[in-house]
Design goal:
- The protein is of the alpha/beta class.
- Helix content is about 35%, strand content about 20%.
- The strands form 5 sheets. Strands 1-2-6-5-3-4-7 form a 7-stranded mixed beta sheet, with helices on both faces. It has a 5-stranded mixed beta sheet with strand order 9-8-10-11-12, sandwiched between helices.
- It is globular.
- The relative contact order is 0.10.
Length: about 450
């Protein structure tokens, strides 16, 4: 069976359309509920969300589905995705659900599912839920006396706040630090500033007035220029930008210069290795991470284990090989000592711990290597499989020969759109620009010819 709903990060689509309609949410709740109703105990599911308007539509639909399958529902309201994973595990729930489209605009929404262990579901389990959704489940509905109940978990935010604070070394505080936190008008708009303030920081909060429409709008980790400007304007020591569901983070130093996920990975890996806390002999990252990170880690005697793009694949590799640090250049940071999924706030706290321990400014602490020039462009196509075309393959071989051992080339299709992502990096920036432009032109010409042939 081919996956039609689930992508690399749950189900995601435009709100109130087929993929993200109340009907779909209800059937997700029913099918996932039936999949995880095992045994005679009272089954329980945690449901959280971000601040999108459509959350009010999808949440009750999911509740109806789960309760009709016989599951009790605990509603926690707007909380970060990692909070839902944590609560699912700590509450011994059978399932966790986050209603969010992460860094997308408010028009989109999504459904992410977590198993009892707090980890995202496997491809096989998601495929089975899809299969159940396509069948007649009326005969498997709970009897009237077995229907689930729904109630609100009033102290959910406090539980996550304490969990996040526990990841910060007890012998340190944030006293004397002035920090800008941009919560993208999203799920962390209350909890993230609270954590920083309770650890002693002077906190300047932005992106903390959600109205259902402004999540990720010109703010947060997808628009970090706003953070950089705020750091300079407020004369802050550090800026932290989260995305809509707070599972990713980007930083800005006191000069207003952006610090991406690769630099954060390098910093935490080196710090943990020095303290004897690093497991796996390195970190897990995706094919998009800069070659500069790989070379930096190698110089420290550490390895970079690469996976395909997607934090779920990073987590899978971490679990398989025993790593405790993984992440993406885009800011997903998975620190398995503290969380089962990406947690932007916890990652930022690890950076802050190093800044406080070393007593140096963020511009010194957070720049562990010089990245190689890297360029990524998207090429849209209308039909066919451009990456299998002989002309594209020949162009790729030529580009790889010109790069030699000085850089990397990566072409990959988007998982959700008719796009080919073309990335190159090398020590010679002009070569990078030329190669990406040339490959994009070849793919475009092949796409035009394929469309004309149809």
């Amino acid at each position: 069976m081919t996956r039609k709903l689930f992508g690399t990060d749950g189900i995601r689509g435009r709100a109130n359309t087929d993929k993200m309609s109340p009907e779909t949410a209800l059937r997700v709740g029913l099918a996932a509920g039936l999949q995880f109703v095992r045994g005679n105990h009272r089954h329980q599911v945690i449901i959280g969300k971000d601040t999108r308007l459509s959350g009010y539509m999808l949440e009750p639909a999911l509740v109806a589905g789960f309760t009709s399958a016989g599951m009790d529902v605990l509603l926690v309201g707007p909380l970060p995705t990692p909070a839902i994973a944590m609560l699912t595990r700590s509450m011994r729930a059978d399932l966790g659900v986050m209603i969010s489209a992460s860094h997308n605009a408010f028009e989109d929404n999504g459904i992410k599912l977590f198993g009892p262990d707090g980890f995202k579901l496997s491809d096989e389990t998601e495929l089975e839920i899809e299969r159940l959704m396509s069948t007649d489940l009326s005969a498997r509905l709970a009897a009237p006396a077995k229907l689930g109940r729904a109630r609100r978990l009033e102290d959910a935010a406090g539980r996550y706040i304490e969990s996040a604070k526990a990841s910060f070394p007890r012998h340190l505080t944030l006293d004397g630090l002035r920090i800008v936190i941009d919560c993208a008008h999203g799920a962390a708009y209350r909890v993230a500033p609270t954590v920083l303030a309770e650890l002693g920081a002077e906190v300047i909060s932005v992106g903390v007035t959600p109205d259902g429409f402004n999540i990720n709008k010109a703010c947060g980790s997808t628009h970090p220029s706003a953070l950089c400007a705020a750091v300079l304007a407020q004369k802050a020591h550090l800026g932290i930008a989260l995305d809509g569901d707070a599972d990713r983070v980007l930083l800005a130093d006191e000069r207003g210069q952006l610090i991406d996920g690769d630099q954060v990975l390098a910093l935490i890996a080196q710090s943990w290795a020095r303290d004897g806390r690093l497991r796996g002999g390195g970190v897990v990252a995706t094919v998009m991470s800069n070659l500069g990170l790989e070379r930096f880690l190698a110089a420290q005697g550490l390895k970079l284990d690469r996976t395909q793009v997607g934090d779920r694949y990073v987590v899978e590799r971490m679990r398989e090989a025993g790593f405790n640090i993984g992440g993406e250049q885009s800011g997903h940071m998975i620190l398995s000592d503290f969380a089962t999924t990406g947690d932007g706030l916890v990652a930022a706290l690890q950076v802050l711990a190093t800044i406080m321990a070393e007593g140096r400014p963020a511009s010194d602490v957070c720049r562990r290597f010089s990245p190689l020039p890297q360029l990524l462009k998207n090429v849209r196509f209308s039909t066919g499989r451009p990456l299998a075309d002989p002309r594209v393959l020949a162009a790729v071989r030529d580009a790889e020969a010109r790069l030699g051992s000085t850089g990397r080339l990566l072409l990959r299709p988007s998982g959700t759109e008719n796009l080919i992502r073309v990335m190159a990096e090398a020590e010679d920036e002009s070569l990078v620009l030329d190669l990406v432009d040339e490959l994009c032109a070849v793919i475009e010409s092949v796409s035009v010819l394929a469309a004309a042939a149809d």
